[in-house]
Structure formats: C-alpha cells, structure tokens
Amino acid sequence: KRPAGAPDKELAKPVRKVGIVGAGLMASQFALLFLRRLQVPVVITDLDQGRVDKAIEGIHGEIDKLQGKGRVDADTANRLKGLLSGTVDKSDFADCDWVIEAVFEELTLKQDIFAEIEEHVSDEAVLATNTSSLSVEQIGAKLKHPERVVGFHFFNPVAVMPLVEVVKTPHTDDATLSTAMVTAKNLKKNAVITRDTPGFVVNRVLAKLLGTAMHAVEQGTPFEDVVEAARPLGLPMDPFVLLDLVGLRVGAHVLDTHHAAFPERFHASEALTALAEENVLIEKDSKGEPKGIDKQALKIV
Ligand code: 3HC
C-alpha cells in the first residue's frame, strides 16, 4: 500500500552513491545504516580530517561489532569498510545522488553547506537534511534547485528506531519525495510524510514531554517524583534519560524552537540551555545506570 501522500515510486531516482555531511554521532550512525542497507559507496565529510578519520574508525568498530554478533559475515564486513571513504573536499561528492547533512542545528550553516554542495553535484542529486526542528524550506533557500530538498529525520538510536519523518516543503518535487520514500524503505525504515512545521510530528510531541519534565524540576519537583509520575506513560526511557540520549544541545534547541514558535504552549528551559555546553544532565551510579538529575549542574538546591 502506498503511504499517505507518497508519489508514484516509479518516479524515484536511483541512489548509487551517498554523501554524508558531518562526522558526529548521528552522521556516523547514518553512514553505517546506508552502508549496510544500500551497500553503495558512502563518503563522509566534516571540517577537518581528524574528525573524519575518527568517525571512520568508529564506523569500522561498529562493523566489527556487527560481525562479532554474527549479523554480517567477514566478507561483508570487509566490503562495507571498503565502500566507506572520508574527505574534507566537497568535490568528492560530485557523483553522489543522495546527500544528507547532520551538522549542528544552525540555519545559516546548513544553508551554506547545501549551497556549496550544489556546486558539485548533478542537478538530479537529492539534498536531504536531518534537521530536528529548523525549517527545511529555509535550509534550501539559497539553492538554485530547492525542489531537490527534503527533510529526512531519523531518531536515536538510528539502527533501532523504526521511523523516518520525510518532510516535504512547498518546493519539494515528486521525484525527490518519491526517492526519499523509496530510500527509507530500502533502509528498512517506516516513513511518514510530514509538513514543514516546527518539530514536524515526533519532536512536537517530545518537546511537550521533555519541556514539561524539565519545567517541573526547575519549579522544584524532585527529579525522582517526575520520573515516577512519568512511569505510567509506559515510555521505554524516562524523559531525562531520553534527553541524555538525544544530547542536551539538540534537546535544548528543540525546546527553544518550539517555545519561539508557540510561546504560550511550550516551555523553554534556561537550565537545559546552560547545561548543554557541559552536556551532563544525569548522574550515573557505579554501573553507569542513571541515578538522578545533576542538581548542582542545574543549580537546584
Ligand atoms: N545505539 C545503538 N544501538 C543501541 C543503543 C544505542 N544507543 N541502545 C540500544 N541499542 C540496541 C542494542 O544494541 C540492541 O540491539 P541488538 O538487539 O542488535 O543487540 C537493541 O538496541 C535493543 O537494546 P536493549 O535490549 O538494550 O533495549 P532496550 O529495551 O533497553 O531499548 C532503546 C533500548 C531501543 C534505545 C529503548 O530504550 C528506546 O526505544 N528508547 C527511546 C528512544 C527514543 O525515543 N528515541 C527518539 C529520540 S528523539 C530523536 O532522536 C529525534 C531528535 O531530533 C531529537
């Protein structure tokens, strides 16, 4: 059955080489997923070669782990490693049909990256963004071909979470949308098409949950009580552990974006924004299990 709003899959363009911009945690997880599921060359880039090399080393390590678990055999593991390359030269993206960016959530940075990539790729190439709450239309605003831009929003941990939000802007053409839907299917993910609105669907829901949990703590409700109160919701992780998983900078950005768009409906968290620099929220016990919120860091006494 064709997903709601999806154009004819015959319109999809082939994805024979993938470019990934950013060499952080999300980008590395994408690289592994694309390698494993599409088995096509994947090239990863960042500002400096050191970060790129570190990402490649990490992805090789993850492939070794998959081999150790018997999920891929030795030949496949070697082939996947051979398909992966790193560069700091965007001209190496020239023959990519699909480029996805996962850099820091800053609009001008993402706009400039896409404009630079457009100089190198063919007119057919799709430019996808993993932004969690910026406007996808605005990210493509400096392009000659904004119809090739689509949101492709994954969830952490990428290997495990089954969903991708495919974000359609007013300019996204059917070939681009179809390519995104078919690519999601080839990655073995469920795709839903969403409108280009703050937080799309999932982060809109999460912003309410995480923002409310942070607000309760900031207002003096003990951390343990917020965790206990959230328990009947049956979440796989409590809100604070989830915040730690997505990363505090991303979490703070999601809350800020929602507060800016709908100030009467969403809380921003100053404490979280301040903490994001240090990136520590949860105190862990000796086994690494979450023990409680770091009250000192939150300046709650
Ligand atoms: N990275 C990679 N793989 C992971 C992982 C991680 N951080 N955590 C768990 N896994 C893998 C495990 O290796 C295991 O794989 P295997 O079966 O191949 O060995 C599998 O997940 C299950 O692991 P566990 O048995 O430890 O599973 P749990 O039952 O504890 O579940 C979980 C772990 C799937 C992460 C679960 O806790 C969960 O679903 N948490 C909620 C995650 C969530 O809501 N993510 C969305 C965040 S929002 C977001 O990312 C958007 C952004 O824009 C903010």
The fraction of residues assigned to DSSP E strands is 5-15%
Which word captures the global form? globular
What structural class do the secondary elements suggest?
Answer: alpha/beta
State the CATH architecture of the largest domain.
Answer: 3-Layer(aba) Sandwich
Helical fraction: 40-55%
Ligand set: 3-hydroxybutanoyl-coenzyme A
Q: Terminal Cα separation, in Å? A: 55 Å
Q: Tell me the name of the CATH homologous superfamily of the largest domain.
A: NAD(P)-binding Rossmann-like Domain
The biggest sheet, with number of strands, parallel, antiparallel or mixed sense and barrel status, is: 8 strands, mixed
Number of H- or I-type helical stretches: 12
Mean pLDDT: 92
Number of domains: 2
Protein name: Enoyl-CoA hydratase / 3-hydroxyacyl-CoA dehydrogenase / 3-hydroxybutyryl-CoA epimerase
Family: Belongs to the 3-hydroxyacyl-CoA dehydrogenase family. In the central section; belongs to the 3-hydroxyacyl-CoA dehydrogenase family.
Organism: Agrococcus casei LMG 22410
